Amino acid sequence: MDPLDLTFLVVVFLVAGLVKGLLGLGLPLIAMGLMSLRLPPAEAAALVVVPSLVTNIWQMVVGPHLRMLIGRLTPMIAGIALGTWIGALVIGTAAHKAGGAASALVGLLLALYALYGLVGLPLPNPVRVPWRLTWGLGSGLLTGLLTAATGVFTLPTVPYLQSLRLERDALIQALGLAFTVSTLALAALLRGSGHLNGDLGLGAGIALAAALSGTAAGGIVRRHIPPARFRRGFFLFLLVLGVVLVFQTALKSGWI
């Protein structure tokens, strides 16, 4: 790995970890969006797996709500696993099947999620059990399909979990649980395609160290920045990143 790539890798995961520490989410979203500027989506996703898994497991186990959340979110968890498997069969990994379209889709997802966050429209709360099962399974399936195509698993998981009106600490744990399942499903997909292998050891280790450092710093900074101001800046950053990624891919692919 040359010095420029190494510096880029460290900066990307420091920034992604900082966002993770501040908001409890955003590491794979930020890392995939930035890494896709230099790497094919499948290679970028392979580097994201280890930092994402470690930070999400920590987020998942810290707190008293895990048992309740596993029971309540079982349909979504099953949907994520099934959706990723179906996505692997139907569309394959991003590098093999989607090509430039996968990078554009990552950018589009970033922009859509940013607009959702900026507008702040809440989804209806699926109070009744049948609706909860349907919404949970459907959200998981779509998340799994998008994970297989792009390596990004924030949508529609985050809006769905926010719609459940969970208490703040329970929501943070729920995000950790959902992202852990998504990361494991993505790891299995990348392992099967040969993108997740021992050659990534150095890069993954550096990415993990940078992500953990950023996450720790984010936890400190969180106490000094008004949450509303940071969230707005975060979503504006994602919107710009998404638009840049779409146009960069379109130019490289000759679409425009």
Work out the number of β strands. Answer: 0
Outline the biggest β-sheet: none
Average pLDDT for all residues:
82
What order do the helices and strands follow? HHHHHHHHHHHH
Low-confidence stretches: 93-97
Strand content: under 5%
Helix residue percentage = over 70%
Keywords: Cell membrane, Membrane, Transmembrane, Transmembrane helix, Transport
Protein name: Probable membrane transporter protein
Main location: membrane
Membrane topology: Multi-pass membrane protein
What does this structure look like?
- The chain has helices spanning 3-23, 27-35, 41-61, 66-72, 74-90, 94-98, 100-119, 129-150, 157-163, 168-193, 201-221, 227-253.
- With 256 residues, the protein is an all-alpha fold.
- The chain has one domain.
- Helix 2 runs antiparallel to helix 3 (41-61), helix 5 packs parallel to helix 8 and helix 8 packs across helix 10 (168-193).
- The longest helix has 27 residues, at 227-253.
- Mean pLDDT is 82; it is low at 93-97.
Write the layout of secondary structure elements.
Blueprint: H1 3-23, H2 27-35, H3 41-61, H4 66-72, H5 74-90, H6 94-98, H7 100-119, H8 129-150, H9 157-163, H10 168-193, H11 201-221, H12 227-253
Summarize the structure in short.
It is built from twelve helices and no strands.
Keywords:
mainly alpha, 12 helices, globular, 256 residues
